[in-house]
Design goal:
This protein is α/β, with parallel strands linked by helices and 324 residues long. Helix content is 44%, strand content 18%.
Length: 324
């Protein structure tokens, strides 16, 4: 792992109106945030899936930075790698000034990001792609090292006396999720470890699939999901199955603190998504206005950070405001 490691603006708006999602994850229009600065427009293009509230927090951070820096932010998203690449191409064709992008599907995005570089458009990567961002010519990466985070979570589970851990992945082949489960496996060794793939866009299916697994194997004593909504659904699944397995999750949302306080959720491993969105936009503004490059060629880590009963009271106010 290497850690040191155009048409018109109107065309972009039209493309985003067709292919982008709202802050609530539904595919709808592209929004502007902040005020138009001195000719600077930043396109943020993510792999957000419909209904995934994690990205509401990323977007809030990006909008806050756009407002501070007085630039125009255009947000678009699609969980399909090819469709996400098309959104990046739309941004290039519309001559945006800078692009912030996630690399959940690096192979699909790498060619179009090379086109951005050839067009002289600076790119930063956020959230996904810590092992691939430098190969695309991006300036910086803002996010967490999912493999390292997974190892830490696995070690914590082992220290808590867990014997049989189930990692629930809501999208097969997504680099972040594979890294998290692989890290969990390494950190938890030599404990018993299983991986379960679910259809993350169908929560009733997630609940029934996890419940079926828990009924099938009552020895599972900890379920770790890879996103906060799935952790909350896993709590329901365990109750439905009559399982005594405990639940923990990667990432957080406004509902997580109450679940931790009640004991329904053991812990959440936060990657501070607000910070990812904020830093990505701010870094691009700084690069244009001052020539700054943040990170010095190394990824800028925004996590991992454990939220549990020891600190949940301090975190809850920020979570309710949608910035954690």
């Amino acid at each position: 792992m290497d850690r040191s490691r155009r048409s018109s603006v109107l065309a972009l708006a039209a493309a985003l109106a067709l292919a982008s999602c709202s802050a609530k994850g539904g595919k709808g229009g592209a929004d502007g945030a902040g005020q138009a600065g001195p000719g600077m427009m930043v396109a943020m293009i993510t792999h957000q899936a419909p209904g995934d509230t994690f990205w509401d927090i990323v977007r809030k951070g990006a909008e806050a930075a756009a407002a501070k820096d007085k630039v125009t932010l255009r947000y678009a998203n699609d969980p399909d790698g090819g469709a996400q690449a098309t959104l990046v191409q739309n941004a290039i064709d519309s001559r945006v000034d800078a692009i912030a992008v996630t690399l959940a599907k690096p192979a699909a995005l790498a060619p179009v990001l090379r086109k951005a570089r050839e067009a002289g458009i600076p790119v930063v990567v956020l959230n996904a792609g810590i092992d691939q961002w430098k190969d695309t010519g991006a300036l910086s990466f803002f996010g967490t090292d999912d493999g390292v985070a997974g190892e830490g979570a696995g070690r914590r589970a082992a220290a808590d006396g867990v014997k049989h851990l189930l990692c629930v992945s809501h999208e097969q082949g997504q680099v972040q999720q594979e890294a998290r489960c692989d890290g969990l496996r390494r950190g938890f060794a030599p404990g018993r470890f299983d991986k379960l793939y679910v259809i993350g866009t169908d929560m009733p299916s997630v609940r029934s699939t996890v419940a079926a697994k828990l009924r099938q194997d009552p020895s599972i004593d900890l379920v770790v999901t890879l996103g906060a909504p799935y952790g909350l659904t896993a709590i329901e699944a365990a109750r439905e199955a009559g399982s005594r397995a405990k639940i923990a999750t990667f990432d957080s949302n406004p509902q997580v603190p109450a679940a931790i306080r009640s004991g329904a959720l053991q812990w959440a491993l936060d990657q501070q998504p607000y910070l990812q969105g904020y830093l990505a936009v701010d870094a691009l503004w700084l690069q244009k206005t001052n020539g700054h490059v943040i990170g010095g060629g190394a990824p800028v880590l925004t996590g991992p950070y454990f939220i549990d009963r020891s600190n949940v009271d301090r975190i809850e106010a920020f979570a309710k405001a949608g910035i954690r």
